[in-house]
Amino acid sequence: MKVSVIGAGSWGTALAHVLGQGGNDVMLWARKPEVCEGVNTSHRNPRYLVDCDIDPHVHASVDFAEVLQGTGAVVIVTPSAVIRQTCANIAPFVSNETPIVVCCKGVEEGSGLVPVEVLEAELGNSERLAALAGPNHAEEVILGIPAGTVIASRSEQTARFFQELFATEAFRTYISEDVVGVEVCAAAKNVIAIACGLSYGMGYGDNTASLLMTRGLAEMSRLVAACGGLPMTCLGLAGVGDLIATCTSEHSRNRTFGYRLAQGTSLEQYKAETHMVVEGALACRTLMSLAESVGVELPIAETVRRVVWEGLDPRKAAAALFDRELKPEFY
Question: Which one from 189, 271, 316, 327 is the annotated catalytic residue?
Answer without folding.
Answer: 189
